Amino acid sequence: MRTATVTLHPDFRIGDIDNRLFGSFIEHLGRAVYGGIYEPGHATADANGFRNDVADMVRELDMPIVRYPGGNFVSGYNWEDGVGPKESRPKRLDLAWKTLETNEFGTNEFVDWCRKVGTEPMMAVNLGTRGIDEARELVEYCNHPSGTALSDLRVRHGYADPHAIKVWCLGNEMDGGWQMGHKTAEEYGRIAVECAKMMKWVDSSIELVACGSSSRGMRTFPEWEATVLNHTYDHVEYISLHTYYGNRDDNTPNFLAKSLNMDAFIKEVIATCDYIKARRRSKKTMMLSFDEWNVWYHSNAADRKVPDWIPAPPKLEDIYNFEDALLVGAMLITMLKHANRVKMACMAQLVNVIAPIMTATSGGAYRQTIFYPYLHASLYGRGVALNLNVQSPSYDDREFDQVPYLESVATWDQAAETVTLFAVNRDLESALELSADTRAFDGYGVEEHLTMTHDDLKARNTFDQPENVVPRKVAPPRVEGGRLSVTLPKTSWNVVRLRKS
Prior knowledge:
By secondary structure, the chain is of the alpha/beta class. The chain has 2 domains: 123 residues, Immunoglobulin-like, CATH 2.60.40.1180; 310 residues, TIM Barrel, CATH 3.20.20. Helices cover 25% and strands 25% of the residues. The chain has an 8-stranded parallel beta barrel, surrounded by 6 helices. It has a 7-stranded antiparallel beta sheet with strand order 2-15-18-19-25-21-22, with helices on one face. The protein has a 4-stranded mixed beta sheet with strand order 1-20-24-23, with no helix packed on it. Strand 23 and strand 24 form a beta hairpin. Helix 3 packs parallel to helix 5, helix 6 packs across helix 8 and helix 10 packs parallel to helix 11. The radius of gyration is 23 Å and the shape is globular.
């Protein structure tokens, strides 16, 4: 059996964890909204048409923020279409996904849903087909108390109190040729900075996210970030990152190593941000918003068969397996390892569309395999992220150098006197014996050890077998002589929770 070592020490701080690191994403795409979070007439629907079975699962995740309404969708979206009496709202062609948008669900419904499930909205504005005026007008509609045309319009729509939306995204993936209103870095940087200025003139309390590259593989990366930030650095708080991974070649060792690509991406964006900081002689440090991330590839073939111009078709409905959950766990660990700079993140997406929650229209709902690492990280990954000084054996890969079998990070909640160790064992053949030096956390004992493993890497949860792949509690290891020894099963996700007695 291979062995690895880590050191738990309160002085090995990476940084404070912003709770918004565990956000998600709802786009007008597929059945994310219609048949997902919203389905009037469903057996569990409330008076607003929100599915209570889905809302209950969302509350389990304790998500602090949800991004809306896109995604590619936002680059052609007229926000005015989605407010006011539903019977008066126009139907539109959504060119991003070639569907029919009814606009039955819009800004106010989304805010209502956020309040219902206990999360905060992250709103994106259209900088593709529209621009500065529409963006600042949406801020006024949502956030200004009253006494102006747009704030009073919101009041007439039934919302006397402002929505007080804190975080706003300045468009979406504007570097991509697939994007409606695609722009060069110079073009986007100019409109983004002017948009940012006017939005903050309406409400100076908001925080803004500028569009970074759509992926590390974009031809314009990282020059895009450098150019955009050269324009926007003084006016935004975050630059965005997006990435998705798949296992199209059925090469699991390589697939499970993809979080190393994510790690490199984060480091490169940080380096670019800090270069612009130095170039501008700025005292401000730019933070990162990883507001789209996940595994995505299972549904590609099925999506090509979906007819165009119908409302809410089944698109991007990846059914996730066990190995997908392992990579999601490793990606969560990776972001926690950069908690000093990655302050927000959104798993894309939340329901039905590349999502941890699946529903049947007019039917039930279940938790996908990726639900559980996300759940554990959100519930227990709060406080301060700790560098573990991991010492692990590694394996060779065609793409990455020396892939460690152990991917791990810890979090320390000083107020609650708890420490949580998150660990993925990438070894397909053997368990990994992990030895943790815990002397700096004197008096802490193991409260529980959760592990998720399965003999079949391709095992999935389904409506018929919703608990085929789920975590389970195992006998908690003991801390003896300032050392914790724990066995991590082969290809497993693990959460070891310690508490001061």
